[in-house]
Amino acid sequence: MATLKLIIVPAKVLKDGKHKIRIAVSHKQDTRYIVTRHIVDNEKQFKNGLVTGRTDAAKINRKLQQELSRYFDVLDRIDPTPFTCADLRDYLIRSTRDPTETILVATNVKITSLESEGRKSRADLYRYTLRHFLTKFGDIPLTLINADTLRQFEQYLYDVGSGSTYVNMNLTRLKAILNDAIRRGAVKYEVHPFSFYTPPAEAERELDLSVEEVQRIRDAQVEGKPLNVARDLFMLSYYLAGINLIDLLQIDFRSTETIDYVREKTKSTKRGAKQISLTIPPEARKIIDKWIGRDGHLDFGYQFTYENFRKYIGRELKRLAKV
Questions:
Q1: Which of 18, 83, 210, 265 is most exposed by smallest CB count within 10 Å?
Q2: How crowded is residue 190: how many other Cβ atoms within 10 Å of its Cβ?
Q3: What is the pTM of this model?
Q4: What CA–CA distance (Å, rounded) separates 39 from 124?
Q5: Are the beta carbons of 225 and 219 closer than 8 angstroms?
Q6: Could you read off the pLDDT of 262-289 as tens digits, one per residue?
């Protein structure tokens, strides 16, 4: 546990015999010092962390306690465990003299930007990354993040049971947060934290479905409406070039052989939106006709919000995979 206290260091006596009052930062069996602007004439004028024997002692002690309190306030906002004593001392000095954004503020700026573009699901992913980071380090300033911080964050994610793919995803999002803060001028690095950090190698995974596997999904005879809906939505997305569920539910399928839409995911992005046009194949039309409602949209008879329906279908797809 890191500690702070007011001291003078006899070995650092000034040429005129006077002493500067310092704040000792002790952490991990190491001690570093923050020099204050206050000076006493000799060692007798400083006892047990207090200035004594001077007419201005009360005034100096009040100012010293205010300065010490500011450092304690900064220290209370983070978990000092991952950092060296020297890092901690430098952080305390920077945080009171040249405050910068913390990871919480920077991530919330990123989340707000994503949500303004309608990318709520991606914004939620950044919330997960932030939660992991805060659990490990607390709300530290961006200036304290370096390559060693990233390696410790990586190890923490492995320690809580994450795989290499999930670790990489979180570190990629963390890098995006830092790059966004750099572009906004919220933080400056002499050396980018990721310059000397090598991400873990991802395990190779076979993600493609074989023709036989797709046929097994298509022809699966499942019981109950939930699994039938999940299977049909999966195949409909497959037939329509991988269309996302949110876009699929917004299309009016009445009296049309083609569909034209703009992906919801990119509709509000700064790069602009591209319209996608697709011809509806017979296999897709068969599924559409099965579930089409009076207004031309797919109607599965549920009263869920989109977000709840998306989660519901996700669970059913996992069940379908086991079947």
A1: 210
A2: 5
A3: 0.53
A4: 52
A5: no
A6: 887 666 555 556 788 889 999 999 999 9
